[in-house]
Amino acid sequence: TNLFNRFENKIFSSYEIGSWKPNPKIFEYAAEKMGFVPSECAVIEDSLSGIEAAVQGGFDVFGLSNKYNHYEFERKGATVFFEMNQLYSLLEGK
Questions:
Q1: How far is CA 7 from CA 11, 19, 23, in A?
Q2: Which whole-number Å values give the CA distances from 66 to 1, 26, 46, 92, in the listed order?
Q3: Following DSSP, what letter does each residue of 8-30 receive, concatenated?
Q4: Cβ–Cβ contacts within 10 Å for residue 90, how many?
Q5: What does the alpha-carbon distance between residue 57 and residue 1 come to, in Å, rounded to a whole number?
Q6: Spatial contact of 24 and 54, defined as CB atoms under 8 Å apart
Q7: Is this model's pTM higher than 0.85 or not?
Q8: What are the 10-residue block averages of pLDDT along the chain, 94 residues in total?
Q9: Residues 6+ apart with CB under 8 A from 64
Q10: Which terminus of the chain has fewer CB atoms gathered within 10 Å of its CB, N or C?
Q11: Could you give the residue ranges of the DSSP H alpha helices within the chain?
Q12: What is the pLDDT at residue 67?
């Protein structure tokens, strides 16, 4: 995707902290390292365990869904979208 350089060394791994989704620690860790609190962040996820983790951590959660899992994503607390080009307008509304 040629996006690696755009992340400016801000890539975090559960292996760094020994905690995996649905535990929210990876999201909390990333937010803290970048100087933010969860309420100032948005998490974009495509898995139920990731959505559960982000909701539990107090983040705004956006679930990239397919036609098969969107109801589950909504029930878990995510704002659901189906195509990446929809994300910008959703984030503007937050």
A1: 7, 22, 23
A2: 21, 24, 9, 22
A3: TT----HHHHT--TTSTHHHHHH
A4: 15
A5: 29
A6: yes
A7: yes
A8: 84 95 97 96 97 98 95 97 94 83
A9: 44, 45, 46, 81, 82, 84, 87
A10: N
A11: 14-17, 25-33, 48-56, 70-76, 87-92
A12: 86
The continuous run of DSSP H or E covering 83 comes out as none
Size (the chain), residues: 94
Closest CA to 69 of 86, 46, 87: 46
Backbone conformation region of residue 8, classed left if phi is above 0, alpha if psi is from -120 to 50, else beta: left
Cα–Cα distance list, 19 to 22, 36, 70 (Å): 9, 20, 26
Which amino acid, 79? Answer: T
Residue 66 in tokens: 């397919």
7-11 long-range CB contacts below 8 Å, 24 or more apart? 10/34
* Matching residue, tokens 């705004």: 60
